[in-house]
Amino acid sequence: MTAAPTPDPLDGARLAALDEYGILDTPAESGFEDIVLLASQACETPTALVSFVAKDRQWFKARIGFDPCETPLTQSVCAHALGRDGILVIPDLTRDPRTRDNALVTGDPQIRFYAGAPLHTQDGFALGTLCVIDSVPRPEGLTARQTATLTALARQVMVQLELRRAIENREQALAARARAEEQLRLAVEATGIGIFDFDLATGELRWDARVRALFGVPARGPITYAETYLGGVHPDDRERADAAVRAAMDADGVGVFDTDYRVVAADTGVERWLAARGRAIVEDGVAVRFIGSVRDITEHKAADLALKATEERYRLAARATTDAIWDWDLVADQVRWNEALTLAHGHDLGAVVPQGAWWLAQIHPEDRDRIARSIRAAIDGTVETWTDEYRFRRGDDSYAAVIDRGYIIRDDAGRAVRMIGAMLDITRRNETERRLRQNQAQLDTVLQTMPVGILLAEAPSGRIVFGNPRLERILGHPTVQAEDRDGYGAYRAYRADGSPVPPGDYPLARITAGEVDHAELEAHYQRPDGSRRWIEIIGEAVKDSNGVTIGAVVAVGDIEDRKRAAQQQDILHHELGHRLKNTLALVQAIATQTLRNVTDLDAAREALSARLVAMGKAHDILLSGESESAGMEAVLRGALSIHDDGGPQRFRLSGPDLAVGPKAALSLALMAHELATNAVKYGALSVPDGSVVLRWEVEGRDRADGSAVIHLLWREQGGPCVVEPTRKGFGTRLIERGLVGAIGGTVRLAYPESGVTCTVTAPLSGLLES
């Protein structure tokens, strides 16, 4: 045995060797205590130590005559003995330059003599020393006998260390074995594994409790391969299981048994799937033992079957769906597509490059950068799902609008490793939505611009959801957004008798309440400015595909003008009836007077016809206007038109524009007709150059008392010399009395030679009275 080549106490290999023994800071042991006692007695010193030199201290496993259990490395004398083969003896520590400044020498306990035998391992590392110390110098050192004894005792220290380590190693090995057995037992129990051992030489088959339970046999009692094992295997699997065992026991084979089979428990009849694993032990080319395990995989098999069924359903669903399903391995950048990529988008799967770049290249250029950023953000982030819409190029280079949804699978570190998704073609949906938006816009335009008010309500609540601008203009206020039918009371409509319309009587209320499918109402509506207008409300039910009323719509029309027109029509009918009676009475009077004492029927017939035509002209003028009066000039020209032979300036009319009432118009027309008839027979109109001047004017029109009068002058000129008639016929009396009798005033006829004149003075109010 040789000492370590260097006395350096901090040598790493030496310190590692010391650590392997695990001796530092261990309790006192009698074997080491006995050694220091023998060393102290043999060397006749008060102090003996078993010292181990560590990295920063020297520690004493056993000591006698020395109180501290350790000292700093700087106070170690033993460190000087580490590099020696034999005992280090220092007769006087105060005289040796290595120790004279040591605190243990200069101070308490003031040691003076030292002798230390190194403790060498079998590898030559010095772990420390067995040393003896005295408080007085020993110039003679140790005797030969003492030296030999100290050396032998040092070897015993190492024997104790080796023995101690061997015992610890054995205990550790036993403990490790016990732990391993316990771990195996717990693992077997936790995993449900059963152990079998088949002695092929004796035919003895041993099963643990778990295997017995799986086969349904008693916990104790003999078992055999043929009856117990093969008898417990399901008949459909028995031959296969037996063949697998025999193949494993074949010395020329691999010697491994690995198969799955079903067993039928002998006690319950329950069928289970087992996974059996085993190995044959071969000696001298012959299998002598077969050891292995069995595990219940019934649930695993069921899950496996369910998984296969799910995969089959997924495969069939993937083939049946029009969604292009993709599976992207993000680590390998491999993308798999289902058949819908061909069926829905026209891409040949054989020509598709199975990488993410191919998919990105099919995206419309205007969408590509956005989608690339979108999916990269999802992959680099922490989300689990990704959804976006874009345009995808089909095989024919057209583009489909698609919505793409993907699920991101991440590893334990959160890194995205896989994405699975589906791409749905929404081209038709988008087109449908576009048309719906267009139709909605058109409907909104119609509702906003149509000439009737529109009101929409939900059923059965009656909540009003819409009213168009025309409705607000008709009602004079914004739409009342009533939440239910009771809220309709905010609308103020009245019946013809003046009573208010109750909320429940409105067509919208009746329809949303389910009373009727159609309802109408005419009402006088009170506007916020105090005015009232007649409105008409017509409502219809809105039904779903099952015929259930889900709402109601009403059209509200302003019928104020129609109502007024109807009233005017009633007035007109009444007036026409009144006028017809008056006209018939007048015709009867004219006819009676014209035909009285007649001698010339033809002349009488002609006179009567002319008078009736004049009356008709007046009636035409009255009925041609919107009011109940007619213009004075129009009445006169109408009466004179039948006497106008087209000659120049036959009739010259002048005067202010006056509205003549119906009674005055008829009388005025008859008077003008009679004057013109006489002028044609006897006066100015009987010659080509004759003419008539007809002029009227108003006097005192601004008088507050209404006493204004109208002056009308008829003057003939250019006719034959006039001779005053000797008698007055019906025509003259009609002239003198007709207009005066109708409106009052005076009529004066004069017959100067130059031409007949007729002057009428009448109250203006009578002329204008309707």
Uncertain stretches = 1-6, 622-628
CATH superfamily of the largest domain: Histidine kinase-like ATPase, C-terminal domain
Roughly what percent helix? 25-40%
**Overall mean pLDDT score?**
86
* Helix run count: 20
The CATH C-level name of the largest domain is: Alpha Beta
Major sheet attributes: 6 strands, antiparallel
CATH topology of the largest domain: Heat Shock Protein 90
Sheet with the most strands: spatial strand order: 3-2-1-6-5-4
The separation of the N and C termini measures 159 Å
Second CATH tier, the architecture of the largest domain: 2-Layer Sandwich
Number of strands: 29
Chain oligomer state:
single chain
SS-based class: alpha+beta
- What is the count of structural domains? 5
Q: Determine the strand fraction and express it as a percent band.
A: 25-35%
Radius of gyration: 68 Å
Specify the overall morphology.
elongated
Provide an overview of this structure.
This protein has 770 residues and is an alpha+beta fold. The chain folds into five domains: 12-169, Beta-Lactamase (2-Layer Sandwich); 192-302, Beta-Lactamase; 321-430, PAS domain (Beta-Lactamase, 2-Layer Sandwich), CATH 3.30.450; 450-557, PAS domain (Beta-Lactamase, 2-Layer Sandwich); 567-768, Histidine kinase-like ATPase, C-terminal domain (Heat Shock Protein 90). It contains 20 helices and 29 strands. The chain has a six-stranded antiparallel beta sheet. Strand 20 and strand 21 (532-543) form a beta hairpin. The longest helix is centred in the first third of the chain and has 48 residues, at 144-191.
